[in-house]
Each structure stands twice: as C-alpha cells, then as structure tokens.
Design goal:
- By secondary structure, the chain is α/β, with parallel strands linked by helices.
- Strands 1, 2, 3, 4, 5, 6, 7 and 8 form an eight-stranded mixed beta sheet that branches.
- The longest helix has 20 residues.
- It is globular.
- The protein has nine helices and eight strands.
Length: 228
Amino acid sequence: MIPRLIAIDGPAASGKSSTAALVARRLGWAHLDSGALYRALTLAALDNIGEGWSGGGQRIVALAENLPVRLVLVDDVFRPEVAGVAVEDAIRSERVTRHVSAVASIPEVRTWVNARQREAAASHPSGVVVDGRDIGTVVFPDAPLKVFLTATSDERARRRLSQRGRAALADEIRRESQALAARDEADTTRPVAPLKPAADAVLLDSTALTLEEQVGQVVELARRRLPG
C-alpha cells in the first residue's frame, strides 16, 4: 500500500480531473490523470499505426515502449510525453477523443497503463492524487482513500458545454446528456475493468456542489484519514 494516495474515480465529465488537480495542489501532492496516458497512447497509435489496431494490443504496447510513451513529473503534475515531446495539448483533440475509448478497452493496453501509474505513484511517496475510472478498484485497490465522484448526466452535460465559454441551449444539453449516458452505459458494462465504485469508496454526488465545495470535501477527508 502507498500510504499517501487518493484514488478518485467517476464517470465522464464528473469533474474528477479538475477536482484531483486542485486537491493535489491544496495538499502539496502530485497529480496523475490516468486518462492523459490513455490519450497519449491513442495519439501514438493513430500517428504510427493508423486506425487498424483491432486486436493489436501487443503492437500498441510495443510502440509505447519503443517511442517511448511515458509520464514525466513537471511541477508536481505527471504529464505524458511521446518520443520525448510533450503532448498535453495534442491529446485533447477531437481525433484522439473519438478513438481513446477503443484503445483503453484493450486488455494489454490497460495492463501497461496500470503498471506505469503504479511506477509513477511509487516514485512520489510524499503523496499522489490519481483520477480515472478504475483507480480504486483495479489500479490501487489498497489506496487508503477512495472517492467516487459523480453527478447527474444533465449537470455533467451543462458543465462540459460551459467549458466552451457560453451558455448552452436546452437542445445542446439534452444531446450531450444523452451522449454521456451512453458513455456511462459503455463504461459500466465493459468486460475489462468496468466503471463502478470500490466497496470502500466515499460516494460524493457533486450535482449541487461547486468545484470548490467538492475539492474542500475531499481535502477534509484526506486530512482526517491520511498521515500528515
């Protein structure tokens, strides 16, 4: 067990990465976004293999080792690099977003990513906050603090659309909410590491909470439960 580790899981657009980043900053710990590593792998596969990777988990893992794809600690944030190049902006493209779920569902890829996350956390014993979809159930099942963060699909849709810098129309919210609900269904029913709260996770519904409020609740939990 890593004594100073917080695992934050939750569905798409639940705010887990924003929450994890701010919790880590508040505690003076490092932040690791597992989704960023999956996205970096997806970018590498698209650029070097193309879209024909069906059944090619071993090929993607070999590519990741050879380029390499890795996590680098920069200002207390583990950031992905591909062949020595920072890819934080490139991995957020629509092209990567369209394919990342397919890549992340490949068992060999998940095994590789999980190993890299464990290595990263072990290298930073002063404390790490990790967010994803199976952190508390698969990657760090012995994490001393696990949080499952969620909100209604409508609220998650509003938050995601608000990132575009304008108020979303009702039809836009409805379509985005439906898309998120479909993603939830896929994530919770997939055969490999399905999305679900760990048995000992703290369930935190943030539907009626501000970002600051949900960060404050997680920080308070950490200060009560984890060694100083």
